[in-house]
Amino acid sequence: MLRYIYTLLSMLVGETEHEADLQASVLSLFLTALQCLLFSLCASIPSLPLQYLTFILQVVNRSFLYGGIASFISVAFPSCHFGKLYGLGTSLAALFCLLEYPCFALVNGVLGGDPLYVNISLTLLSLLPFIHPLSVYLHCRKRASLRDKRKTKAFSS
Predict the structure, then answer these.
(1) Residue 155 Cα distances to 16, 78, 118, 150, 152, angstroms
(2) Average pLDDT for residues 38-66, to the nearest whole number?
(3) How many Cβ atoms from other residues are within 10 Å of residue 75's Cβ?
(4) Is 74 helix (H, G, I), strand (E, B) or coil?
(5) H or E element in which residue 126 lies
């Protein structure tokens, strides 16, 4: 609902519906990346009551992740490519899930059962998803400045 209100307000400013939808997806992408980071931080702390919150974050994060991917693909790309791109995203997620066993073997073997270094590295790795909302935001700003330059040029002519 909030996305549609934002889209209508953006169209009053002069944005196209596609630009407004892209701009509205930035918040969803940012919240998903923030949930990934919070989940990683909570999973790194060995406290049983905190693990309940970690489980809830994991469930909510999964729904945001898959819903956000589907939403962004439907907004940013033509609909004829949706199935291919969604399948590619799901396949990449499955490939990263395969890294679970090597991490587990690393903790039990080389690190002697202490997962601290793996947790720190995975938490730092979970900062990477913040690049995507920033990239989409900068793309939207660039398109808006180009649109404003075209309007200014049209009015001055």
Answers:
(1) 19, 33, 58, 9, 5
(2) 89
(3) 18
(4) helix
(5) none
Q: Which helix (H) or strand (E) holds 34?
A: helix 17-44
- 56: tokens are 């809830």
Q: What is the pTM of this model?
A: 0.79
**Residue 144 near residue 15, CB atoms below 8 Å:** yes
- The tokens of 80 are what? 């004829």
Q: pLDDT tens digits, residue range 56-79? A: 999 998 888 888 889 889 988 999
Cα separation, 15 vs 74, in Å, equals 18
Measure Cα distances from 82 to 23, 45, 73, 76, 108 in Å: 19, 38, 6, 10, 40
How far apart CA 88 and CA 91 sit, in angstroms, is 5
Can you tell me which residue has the tokens 């919150």?
A: 53
Q: Which two tokens stand for residue 15?
A: 């944005």
Query: CA separation (Å) from 5 to 9, 20, 30?
Result: 6, 10, 19
